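note to self — DONT lose this again. spent like an hour looking for the file last time. sequence + predicted structure for the chain T wanted, 338 res
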Amino acid sequence: MNVDNAIHFVTVGNWSGGGNAFLNNAKEAAARHDVLNGGPESVPMIVRNTPTPLGTAPGPFMLAPQNAWPWRFAGATHRELARVLPLRLASERTMRKRIGLLRISSAIPERGDPKTMSPVIHNVLDSGYEAALLESSTITVPEAQDAIVCLGSVYSYRNMDSVVRAYERYVTTGGNAPLFLAGAPGDRATVNALKQSISSVSAGQITLVEKGLKRAECLAAFRDARVVIQSSVIEASPFSVLESLSVNSRTVLSNISANREILRSAQIACGSAHDGWFPARSPISLADALSAVSRRKSNPISEVLSDPRFREQERDRWGDAVAKWVTSTLEHNRHWKE
């Protein structure tokens, strides 16, 4: 195959859980579409905001930014800003150099030639999820049993401080579930502020575990929770939203674009909209949502996401959409060079 007629996904380096899940979907799609399986001499698709030294491409490249935080960092600590501002500058520079921009969310801004930007193609649950789901059936996370559960690395954008303040109101208005927070300590100042907020809550029971859980453990915690909270103020295309709803209908979501968009296919499939939303910065609204959702018995979106046939169809649809866009973008670039 002509190397200009195909791409390959760059897989070198270390990856977050979301990055690995994206690459799982990419690998499956590449097995079905030659245009995504071009080998090392074809056009690289860099699945990051900017190339790592090992993934730097000397020639034309495509880009699939995974991190939306650089475009919204309100509330970030000084240390977080020192990390995210350079990433914003580097992301902007890289996005203008690429020959194709794969947008996994509208939270990733449009940059460069619009003819080489994909429509928004959100993440779907990957084959790694299927393995983790099977493993989770043998796992119990004791702190998550009948608790309000919120998981994620402790950065300011995760909005866990609002979760604690919402929990305080929830308890004072009659709620009786404990709160379980867990995630790797991303920024120490944010962790310390969160601990201070926790210490100020006089009622209820709050557990904070400063480590990330394995994917199967997260699924087990979500499954056994009374309510799951997805609280971020900014995300790109969060697998965790699909994961929690697939195993627990009592999931409440911050009302941000990524969370709304990633549910679109499931909502179309079931003909019903998700009703567990709260304004991301409103502890009062979140407390009300916790009380309301804890009484829920079923959720049509959860029923759709829990169906393995739907998940497989979504993986096929995702791969088809990416392959179609890559094909048209490579064709556009060939015409432009000529």
